Amino acid sequence: MIPGTFDYHAPKTLKKAVSLLNEHEDAKILAGGHSLIPLMKLRFAAPAVVIDIGRVSGISRIRISDGHIQIGALTTHHTIGSNARLRRVCPVLPETANEIGDLQVRNRGTLGGSVVHADPAADWPAAMMALRASFEVAGPSGTREVSASDFFVDMMTTTIGDGEILSQIRIPEPPAGSGSAYAKMHQSASGFAITGVAAQLTLDESGNVSAAGVGVTGVAPIAYTASAVEDALVGKAPDEGAIAAAAALAADGVQDANEDHHASGEYRMHLATVLASRALASAAERAKS
Amino acid sequence: MKITGTHQISAARDRVFTVLTDPECLARVMPGCKGLESTGDGAYSIHLAAGVGPIKGEYAGTVQLTDIEAPSSYRMLVDAKGKTGFVKGEGKVELVEDGDATTVIYEGDVTLGGPVAAVGQRMHSSAAKLMTRQLFGAIEAEATAEEGEDVKHSIIRNTLRGLRSK
Amino acid sequence: MPVAKSVGARIKRREDPRLIQGLATYVDDLQLPGMCYVAFVRSPHAHAKIQSIDTSAASALDGVVSVVTGADVNPDVGGVPCAATDFPNVQVPEHPVLAEDKVRFVGEPLAAVVAVDRYVAQDAVDLVEVDYDPLEAVSDAEAALEPGSVKLYDHFDSNQAFTWDLEGGDVDAGLKEADRVISQRFIHQRLAPNPIEPRGVAADFNAGDEQLTLWSSTQIPHILRTQVALMIGLNENRVRVIAPEVGGGFGCKLNVYAEEAVLGHLAKKLERPVKWMESRRENFLHTIHGRDQLGDVEIGMKNDGTITTLKYNVVADVGSYFQLLTPAIPTLTGLMLCGCYQIRNVSMHLRAAFTNKMSTDAYRGAGRPEATYIVERIVDCVADELGLDPLEVRRKNFIVKDSFPYETGTGLSYDSGDYTIALDKALKNADYEGLRKKQAELRDEGRYLGIGLSTYAEICGMGPSAAMPAGGWESGTVRVDPTGKVTVLTGIKPHGQGQETTFAQLIADGLGVDVDDVKIVHGDTDSVQYGTGTFGSRGTAVGGTAMIMAMEKVKKKVKKFAAHMLEANIDDIELEDDRYVVKGNPERGVSLADVSGHAHRGIDMPEDTEPGLAESHFFEPSNFTYPFGTHIAVVEVDKDTGEVDIQRYVAVDDVGNIINPMIVEGQIHGGIVQGLGQALYEEVIYDESGQVLTGTFMDYTMPKAHFFPRFELDNTVTPTPVNPMGVKGVGEAGTIGSTPAIVNAVIDALKPFGVRHIDMPLRPEKLWRLMNGGESS
Ligand SMILES: Cc1cc2nc3c(=O)[nH]c(=O)nc-3n(C[C@H](O)[C@H](O)[C@H](O)COP(=O)(O)OP(=O)(O)OC[C@H]3O[C@@H](n4cnc5c(N)ncnc54)[C@H](O)[C@@H]3O)c2cc1C
């Protein structure tokens, strides 16, 4: 539980952080450290240089304007979980945040760190898929924007290059008549998701679903959008029957589901359907109120 | 840990067999392979920088191909160790012609030992599947690479294509 | 100022302020000038020959002071001791502190690096090149006993470590007498004790005084001193063991480990202070594990629910080597197999198997949770078989109140008990009738409520020396300073049990001083007389008694002085609050400080009386003590996910007289949590090749506070006649009582699905499968 030797930098600006990252071979960004440091202590990761972005300004704020929710990559789970406005505007975000780990973890761990780490059991990716988030990535030659569906490539692998830093997460502000929720089954030891489903529903004036977003984590190597569920709901009234029928499709098309001694692949796929129906039911409830 | 599966590669069986058994090709397609040298009799010494995402480990060991029935089957033994543990594997690979393509059927048993076994169990099977996907993405690229094409480039292309189509 | 009676009061733990404020000193807090840090090279293989070890690169690293292997150390350091090898068919393995020829489990140490800091030490560990020749491993105990299995020890006949048989009454006659016989397999999965502070050792050798000081996070400082002295070849009086603050033990620090001797040896050899702190990963691999028995039980019963016989045929997985008490643990299971029932015909046939795993040894409850689990599951199985309420089967078989002391079929003599009052109180507190009604209603709605009972009795207050592998007595010294403050030296080693508070309460009342005027000293072999240590819920029942006896001697002397000073008859002196007064004349009195001052001046002594005021006592208990109680768990199992929601947990425990209810409740709380941990969450998993798959808290589920509802605790009081305080012991009761309550509750919930038994831990997926037409896998 003793890490190897490394050099440490703590830049104050994003630009400096990007340039440090590109100056050094084998450098790693340190955000909340709650995924990176455990790996370093086990010597499973042994970067030569650690660039701590904890002091970089401008990337730890939540702003809602121009039809977007913008969350800085360095924003902690706790900050998101305790944001009163988000609770009204997009409840799945604080709800997801508050399901992560324990208070200490939420106080240090960041949204950006979590999505870049892309643990197959992490909570955030479900919401990112459901909410159609996009990611602003800063690199040596400027910034680029990547959609959530392109961002997650495979287990613990994203499109972020070695010389890039995730700076902002952008989420379309849910229109009036929307509701969202997260339902999770915890892995008893780690608290990560065995399966987690984030859902957002928007209802039209007649109370039918005009848009649906459903993201599932824990089941496959990366979180995915349960498009079959979404398609099955659009145009329908989100009653118990419609939700149940749609939720049953939550693991459609999943091959190679994750498995370990806590849960088999089959069970995870089953949980996706159960949790999808729970998340959808609360989302519908919230959309109506 | 059992690893079984099939994978279709759009290249002729002879070509695929070569990629799988030729040390030079093998060195290119094995995920994280940093060096592979023949030590004779179907045995190779190998040096890997294997890992998933930020988790990296350097492994050194041997790969042995036996019971080679070109171009349809062989057995493979892998034995490698590094600071974070060791990997031992044994498996059978079969190649079946499928029109212009080839179906690779593999069946193996992999044992992980040491720290990587003790701390990573929740990731074992997913990581193994990930590496298998990477391997086949690379094999496909190698097998279908045009003469002179940068194989690295086509590996990325094929891996991404494979993922998209999932 | 009059002293309020403090025994029985909810006095806050006096040890807590320093713990909460970070003012306590653990091994890791020790810093000595020139201190070096030790890290161990450990086997990644479960079973392998060591072909060669190349330490040259490690030795060459800047900052490395020394690298030693088994070949260097073993000639000078004796093997890891086992105090319990007197068993039929026993094969005792040699247990070198550093493996030399062969490694037999993942995590076995084979070399040690000494360096100027922990980072260099760890870097050097990575540079030690070990060439292993891996061998096939066996991690399944039953498979290990099969003829033809891979053997751990080439020179042994087999992997059978020892056998042990116990029979009371006539089990076959009991089977004949039975109307029905059922059998059931029970698995007690392997658990990791996981104290919050892992193990740690520091050692310092003073060559001038030829004196080794060894700090270790241990429950048994004196036994450790004896053993380490023998292992490293120093006179025992040249070794001082200090157990500083110990952050929990749960039995895993009731042991002597290789690292303790290696550190002592290195300090002596290098003449530099050395320290090693175990990492959590090492703790999972190389600190003893608990439980790990699997066995078949055959039960005979009458149609009215009377149990006529209980036969237990069991394999205990002891791992690769014997640690201090490894073989003794499963025998406690046998002794307690009858629980609180009149089961006259009982037997246990035990075979212990060596496997390529870490050794098992004492973990909170040590052998008794297994017994309680078996017998409490069995009464439920009997009820299920006969269509009776499990309550009825319990009442039918209870040992009745007026039969104490009660001789069990297994040869024990239960001291005192009244199992019905605890049961009745728990039923009332839980509203059992109401719960059953609610259960029926919910079932109609497709919801699955389960109610589980455990009416346990356990054995503690260890124990008479004749029954203990390493002594069962305890020691205490009570010293009164000239100013009247009291210092107690106790041979036990509290590490969370709160005796710095409870012992002070006893002394305060006994001698008429304030609780804050009493200091409890423990854990330093140079200041405290020899003692046995803290384990087996013995601290208060045995250690407390030793102290009380010493205190009584002091008190006798105090009265003698008081009589002399007050010119009264000694028989007329009595303690009234904080003054020793003359009966019928309370204004004539002296305080303890007055007396002690007088006794220490040494002039004007009563006749035949030595000056000073200090006495010791070594107490040998005449019997164990037997707490008991009833635990009731109420759970709801979610059919869609298999998740268990613990809705209520009601416990009524009878641990004899209570010195401090708050501390008793704390012990019960922690105990219940650990018992529920086994039932629902915890399991050390080794794969077929002997690799540990649960090597971190990411995969080994430690129960957490938010998993549980508020426990509803209550008690009855049935004092024990075994010691003058009438206290029984409470350290393990909660763990022992709780596991079957929750398992019975879950199985009760799943009754509509035809479920009769489920093996622990009750993972949601297992339950989901059972509730949805599948087998539990
Ligand atoms: C005890 C515990 C329990 C936990 N429970 C849960 C849980 O229930 N659910 C859950 O989802 N997670 C859980 N986590 C993980 C936690 O949420 C982490 O905080 C999160 O995964 C990583 O965020 P971080 O800020 O700590 O990232 P770090 O550990 O600092 O970094 C993680 C990785 O991302 C990279 N990185 C970080 N930020 C950036 C950036 N802006 N740009 C580019 N690269 C970046 C780093 O280089 C590193 O590779 C738990 C962690 C712990 C320790």
Count of individual helical segments of chain B: 5
Based on Cα principal axes, name the global outline of chain C.
globular
- Assigned CATH superfamily of the domain at 398-403 and 413-458 and 626-777 in chain C: Aldehyde oxidase/xanthine dehydrogenase, molybdopterin binding domain
CATH topology of the domain at 398-403 and 413-458 and 626-777 in chain C: Aldehyde Oxidoreductase, domain 4
Class of the domain at 398-403 and 413-458 and 626-777 in chain C, according to the CATH hierarchy? Alpha Beta
User: What's the total count of β strands of chain C?
Assistant: 28
Low-pLDDT stretches of chain B: 160-166
Summarize this entry quickly.
The complex is a heterotrimer of chains A (289), B (166) and C (777). Chain A is an alpha+beta fold and 289 residues long. In chain A, 34% of the residues lie in helices and 26% in strands.
Q: What report would you give on this structure?
A:
The complex is a heterotrimer of chains A (289), B (166) and C (777). Chain A is an alpha+beta fold. Chain A folds into three domains: 7-52, Uridine Diphospho-n-acetylenolpyruvylglucosamine Reductase, domain 2; 62-172, Uridine Diphospho-n-acetylenolpyruvylglucosamine Reductase, domain 3 (2-Layer Sandwich); 178-288, 2-Layer Sandwich (Enolase-like, domain 1). Chain A has helices at residues 14-23, 36-41, 77-81, 84-89, 92-98, 103-108, 111-117, 124-130, 148-151, 227-233, 240-247, 265-288, and strands at 7-9, 27-30, 49-52, 62-65, 68-72, 134-139, 142-147, 152-154, 157-158, 165-172, 178-186, 193-203, 209-217, 224-225. Chain A has a five-stranded antiparallel beta sheet. Chain A has a four-stranded antiparallel beta sheet with strand order 11-12-13-14, sandwiched between helices. A three-stranded parallel beta sheet of chain A has the order 1-3-2, with helices on one face. Chain A is globular. The relative contact order of chain A is 0.12. By secondary structure, chain B is an alpha+beta fold. Chain B has a single domain (2-165), classed as Alpha-D-Glucose-1,6-Bisphosphate, Chain A, domain 4 (2-Layer Sandwich), CATH 3.30.530.20. Chain B has helices at residues 13-21, 23-29, 115-119, 121-144, 151-164, and strands spanning 2-9, 33-40, 43-52, 55-69, 73-82, 85-98, 101-113. Chain B has a seven-stranded antiparallel beta sheet. Among the domains of chain C are: 16-22 and 473-619, Aldehyde oxidase/xanthine dehydrogenase, molybdopterin binding domain (Aldehyde Oxidoreductase, domain 4); 398-403 and 413-458 and 626-777, 2-Layer Sandwich (Aldehyde Oxidoreductase, domain 4), CATH 3.30.365. Chain C is built from 20 helices and 28 strands. Chain C has a seven-stranded mixed beta sheet, sandwiched between helices. In chain C, strands 7-15-14-13-8 form a five-stranded mixed beta sheet. A four-stranded mixed beta sheet of chain C has the order 18-26-27-28, sandwiched between helices. Chain C is globular, with a radius of gyration of 27 Å. The model of chain C has no long low-confidence stretch (mean pLDDT 97). The A-C interface holds A 1-5, 42-43, 185, 188-190, 192, 260-264, 267, 270-271, 274 and C 39, 118-119, 121-123, 126, 279-281, 640-641, 643, 680-681, 685, 693-694, 697-702, 707, 763-765, 768-769, 777. Bound molecules: flavin-adenine dinucleotide. Flavin-adenine dinucleotide binds next to strand 2, helix 2, helix 7 and strand 10 of chain A.
